[in-house]
Amino acid sequence: MKLAIEGGNPVRKSLLPYGQQWIDGADISAVITTLESNYITQGPIIAEFEQAVANYVGAKYAVAFCNGTAALHAACFAADITAGDEVITSPITFLASSNSVLYQGGIPVFADIKSDTYNIDPNEIRAKITPHTKAIIAVDFSGQPAEMDEIIRIAEDHGLVVIEDAAHSLGADYDGCKVGALANMTMFSFHPVKHITSGEGGIITTNSKDYFDKLQLFRSHGMTKDPSKLLQNDGPWYYEMQELGYNYRITDIQAALGLSQMRKLTSFVERRREIVATYQNAFEHVEGIITPFQHYKSNSSWHLYILRFVNGYLKKSRKEVFEALKAENIGVNVHYIPVYNQPYYQKLGYQIGQCTQAEKYYEEAITLPLFPKMADQDIQDVISAVLKVYQAYK
Ligand SMILES: *Cc1c(COP(=O)(O)O)cnc(C)c1O
């Protein structure tokens, strides 16, 4: 069949995005109920939403933020990252994982990924530890938890804080435990392409009361009215600013949407796993394509489904495969450009070539559409398009 990029008919008439929210009537009613209530921000729904997420992941505390990036920034504050502190993280992640370190004046240090899981390699973390290392930000890439037992062991050996960037892995399990109570602090994002959405939103879950208090302080200008924490008390109106915090609060409107979405999380994750099983069947045995590998301890919640087109196997480059798939109306994407390749990081002096696995991975990866609302026909369209392009370029 003639490829759409060469003038043939595309597999689909309209573009299938790589990710998308699924909002239903119950979500809309929940938001309207909040809009009609006395509180549209800082009301009772935020705490309900936090409780629902904490219960789901099995953590004692949760603090919601206006987005996941703000939540990561708060986690770096709570971990006491300050000027000159080094924080080890993965280069194959969204910018926010390491930017949150920069916000605090810290120094992101990139440790290479493993060639199979694309998650940070614990041996590479060990090799990057210095006397200035303060924390590790592990990223659960694509929904597959990082090797948390090994990472926690390293952290214990060196007195480091572990922050898990679990923006991709709400609903995933590691070694039989839900992601969210493994690290010192775990961040989830509620951006519309993630597992559940609140429009914009993020949360930190933790078992530590100390982190919990710091996160709450940071979210609201570093300000407290809690009588037990005040240094003095002029009267019932009195508040104190004890740290330099931000306005990183989420609204009740967003929390209402998030809370309603939490009720569907289990079915969303199930559907993602079902779609991935269909993809795996279709692509597992195709020569020159590498399908996602699963570590035996992890049960991914599948934020992303990524194929690697082995360099040099097809007659065309990854870029040309990408463009051909786009022309078939498949909303492919690439996750991610190694963070240190970015001009801003280059200006800071980060060297290209420092993480060879990450760079090799970046040259070969293509993300296929994956979201729970995909119809069976959408899944078949993706498979047909990939095989069509593959056959034409073989
Ligand atoms: C989405 C995402 C974030 C940031 O979340 P926002 O809610 O968009 O600020 C951080 N890290 C990773 C890996 C993400 O995918």
Automatic annotation (TrEMBL):
<dbReference type="InterPro" id="IPR015421">
    <property type="entry name" value="PyrdxlP-dep_Trfase_major"/>
</dbReference>
<keyword id="KW-0032">Aminotransferase</keyword>
<keyword id="KW-0663">Pyridoxal phosphate</keyword>
<dbReference type="InterPro" id="IPR000653">
    <property type="entry name" value="DegT/StrS_aminotransferase"/>
</dbReference>
<comment type="similarity">
    <text>Belongs to the DegT/DnrJ/EryC1 family.</text>
</comment>
<protein>
    <submittedName>
        <fullName>UDP-4-amino-4, 6-dideoxy-N-acetyl-beta-L-altrosamine transaminase</fullName>
        <ecNumber>2.6.1.92</ecNumber>
    </submittedName>
</protein>
<dbReference type="Pfam" id="PF01041">
    <property type="entry name" value="DegT_DnrJ_EryC1"/>
</dbReference>
<keyword id="KW-0808">Transferase</keyword>
<dbReference type="InterPro" id="IPR020026">
    <property type="entry name" value="PseC"/>
</dbReference>
<dbReference type="GO" id="GO:0008483">
    <property type="term" value="F:transaminase activity"/>
</dbReference>
<dbReference type="InterPro" id="IPR015424">
    <property type="entry name" value="PyrdxlP-dep_Trfase"/>
</dbReference>
<dbReference type="InterPro" id="IPR015422">
    <property type="entry name" value="PyrdxlP-dep_Trfase_small"/>
</dbReference>
